[in-house]
Design goal:
heterodimer; A: 143 residues; mainly alpha; B: 141 residues; Putative YeeE/YedE family protein (chain B); Sulf_transp_TsuA/YedE (chain B); transmembrane (chain B); cell inner membrane (chain B); cell membrane (chain B)
């Protein structure tokens, strides 16, 4: 069951990214480029996505997931260095190519060699991240 | 185009619905970087099946829709160095921050998570400055 639900969720996510135009790097960079020909689409996508998701969070109250287990607890509101540093690095990459993890997957079959290079480089970065993080924590301990 | 925002809204609702299914059915947060990252670094191998199923749907369903959805152009740069640098930054950054646009953005903001809100503000600011710098000052992208 979990596998089927995950497949449905992934398919809906992919359809949403395609329909919304978020697989188009020009729309993402156009939204980030406040000094250029600004494209507001991404704000509508975010707004549209947050509505069903907020309802879903409300529905989790007093219930359990359909396929069993528990709902994820709300994380402690601790910010910390890794959250800020990571988000800045991610934002730089996102701006450079106009791709983030979801759309890079959704467009993998029609994004040419560049799309494959992006996903490969992203996987490499994800693979290296835990040891980079451990090294940084040793050199400059986060409080 | 004028109808872009409507398609954005419809696509956004689908993305939110996808997150709602993943949460209400499987009890998990739909974060693309976390789902991929857990497979890449081994931390999520115990839940590999649902991760792979999710990615299968995410990769293959747009390919199925593509023939009836012909106006797609991704405008990805041809500069493979820029792409590789961007990919590494996205990979390292999302794992340091423990989330990306879907996890921190869509799933985090919708439950008013402080971490999600701060992360989203930071990556939008960094992304905006990066585009302005590399596009308008260096002319690379």
């Amino acid at each position: 069951m979990r596998t089927i639900f995950a497949l449905i969720s992934g398919a809906l996510f992919g359809a949403g990214l395609l329909v919304s135009g978020m697989v188009d790097t020009a729309k993402v960079q156009g939204w980030l480029d406040v000094f250029g020909d600004w494209d507001p689409t991404l704000a509508f996508v975010m707004g549209g996505a947050i509505v069903p998701m907020a309802i879903a969070w409300q529905l989790t109250r007093g219930r359990k997931p359909l396929a069993g287990g528990e709902f994820p607890p709300k994380p402690e509101a601790r910010l910390g260095r890794n959250l800020v540093l990571g988000s800045v690095l991610f934002g730089m990459g996102w701006g450079l190519a106009g791709l983030c993890p979801g759309p890079s997957m959704a467009s993998l079959t029609f994004n040419g060699i560049g799309g494959v290079v992006f996903v490969g480089a992203m996987a490499l970065g994800m693979f290296a991240a835990p040891s980079l993080r451990a090294r940084l924590d040793r050199a400059v301990p986060a409080e | 185009m004028e109808q872009d925002w409507i398609m954005g809204l419809i696509g956004g609702l689908l993305i939110g619905l996808a997150g709602a299914v993943y949460l209400l059915a499987n009890g998990r947060i739909m974060g693309a970087s976390g789902i991929i990252g857990g497979l890449v670094d081994g931390s999520g191998w115990s839940t590999a099946k649902e991760r792979i199923a999710f990615l299968g749907g995410l990769i293959l369903f747009p390919a199925v829709l593509l023939p009836i959805y012909t106006e797609v152009d991704t405008h990805l740069t041809n500069n493979l160095w820029v792409i590789a640098a961007a990919g590494i930054l996205v990979g390292v950054g999302t794992r340091f921050a423990n989330g990306c646009t879907s996890g921190h953005g869509v799933c985090g903001i919708s439950r008013l998570s402080l971490r999600g809100i701060v992360a989203t503000v930071m990556y939008i600011l960094a992304g905006g400055l990066t585009v302005v710098f590399f596009r308008h000052m260096l002319g690379v992208i």
